[in-house]
## 1
Amino acid sequence: MTDDSLLLFHSTTPSKTQNVMKNLDLPMWLSLIRNIDVSESDLQGVIANYLFINMYEDTYKFFIEETQYEGSKFKPSISQRKYIKNSILEGRIMDAIDRINQIDSNILKENNNLLFVLMLYRLVDIITSGDLSAAVKFAKENVSTCIKKDPNLLSKLEEAMSLLAFQDLKSPEALEIIKRIQKPDEISVLVDNSLIAYYNLDPKPILENIVKETLWVESQLESKPNSYSLKLHDVSRCGFKLTPNT
């Protein structure tokens, strides 16, 4: 084995299989890369995954029709995810909750924190509408069940209920509390990631992870002096070139 032998170790997440390449010199490593057989089905799966995760619905449907890809059937559907996302962004939290329960009633039952975030958002809506008795009733019947499962959430409920003491809900202090609780952009992403994860998919597209791992390998090779390394000089085409390390 030459002095250019490489020891690469990388783990994307604790739950993923760790990829280890031990004592492979550069020519051997390049040869192994060239001889890897990537099936058409694998490539189609990466593209389908990218389109699905990013909710490119029309393109995804066209791609599936054109390629006749028969890999994993991703769930929930893009149209369902879009409906839920738009409902949250438009403040229609109960519509979002209803649609999530239609997909699978266990999603929110098994994700207490997610349910709490949605219920707290709705509670603030009721408070700002001026119906204080309805707000208290909603807190007791819906939000309190989340507190029973996780008492650490109590402080956030107390913060929301403190809005009842404000005579002017448009005061800077009240608006700051509302802003901390009602974050539609963040919540819509949280909900979508939770939906995808429930069906055992990574919220990050496979293609993004491939590029990240490629860049990581590049950085490891570059760190070895007096040898040649692979250089990813064009991410858009995954173009590699050999460059000498100094």
Note: Residues 112-129 form the longest helix (18 residues).
## 2
Amino acid sequence: MINKLMDSIDQVRALRVRHMSRYWKATAVIPASLFPYWQRTAQFEFKGIPQDAFFFARATEGLLTFFDCVRTSGKRCLLPSIAADSVWHAWARMDARSLDAFCIQHFGRTIAHVDQAEMGPDMENALATCIATARQLRGGDPSAPIVPRLFALDGSLFMPGGYGYRLVQGQVGCRRLDQHGRPEGALFYPVGMTAAVDLTRRDGSSCGAVAGCGGDGCDGGGGCGGD
């Protein structure tokens, strides 16, 4: 009885996320089979990941925000959320063609998943582009000293092994989350976050030759999308 009640509450919370999302039209056409597939398989790739509908809904919204960052910036972006990356991986495994068709329909292009190992120096630019564009999508100044919702996603969902971003005295810091999704270790302050702000103010660009989040085991995010 209690389990059924908790499941019902979880479903209601997930439905509310979808209805309140700016991407509600897009979420309505995501394959219904994706959630159960993700629920069955994500745990083998992402140890300790929650498997409830609310987590999936929030992670999916984060992924769509990231796709929007790629579309809006027209450049490579680094996905700063392992939770969102788990949905991307599951969808690509389950039905890559439907994922490509979805991206073309709602974001005007296919968005290739590029592993960090293949990015090289581009990872530094991609993280800076993503945070500036995510701020802009929320109606804010790309250079504003805030942590966008996308960057706060793993921390708010307690994603095991995810990335925790926070603002300290106007600077964006990053650190890994432990197996329980809680911050561990010292914050690392990516030079790229500050450099991206300066470049945005100077020439209107959301990206430049800047450093991403690195050091102390914090490399800043999951996969990369874009050209």
Note: Strands lie at 77-78, 113-114, 163-168, 171-176, 224-225.
## 3
Amino acid sequence: MVENESEICLGHPVSVKYVNLKWQKRGFKYSLIAIILSLIFHICLMAYAILVIGEIVETKDPAGKIRVSTAPDAPVTMALRIILLIITFAAMVKDIFQIKMQRFRYFTKLSHYLEMAMHIMVILFLLPVNKILTKTHIGAGAFAVLYSWMTLIQYLKVVPVMGIYIIVVQTIFWTLMKGLSSEVNAVFSSLLETLSLEPFVLSLTPPFEDPLR
């Protein structure tokens, strides 16, 4: 229906019933496993990013404020890193088998490119293990979190309750992007990437001094 530009039919009760039956008979088990793994991966990635980037707290030092975070080689971050790397390399093996089976058709889906980009950024974010987080790690982590959100949304498309709305929104988005000029598309893409780099920018910016002190 989406390919034939008949997205409005997706909301019809007959279409919803058909999708639900197909979901229960064929895709429920495999899709549920994929969604659960994606959720575990996303939660672990967010937890790892929050721990290693840390927060800015008040101190009695002349500097006023310092950044407090968990060391990348701490036990809790190492445990999260192991979980993330296991899921990442397992997903990469799955992608290799998909490329072998689907060949050129594998590269025709945007979701596959998002997954590959996410895997690369996650590896750059997690490795190598240093006692102090570098700017490269933080930058890669910002993109990894962005691509993780986008990949999770792609997995949620197979859920009948949410999938219909996600597909419709994506179709509207791509239709809008096609109608805009290349200059506007470039600006919009730059803004999207800038939002993903917010943790990176904040990590490089020194804490502000309180002007009232």
Note: Residues 13-53 form the longest helix (41 residues).
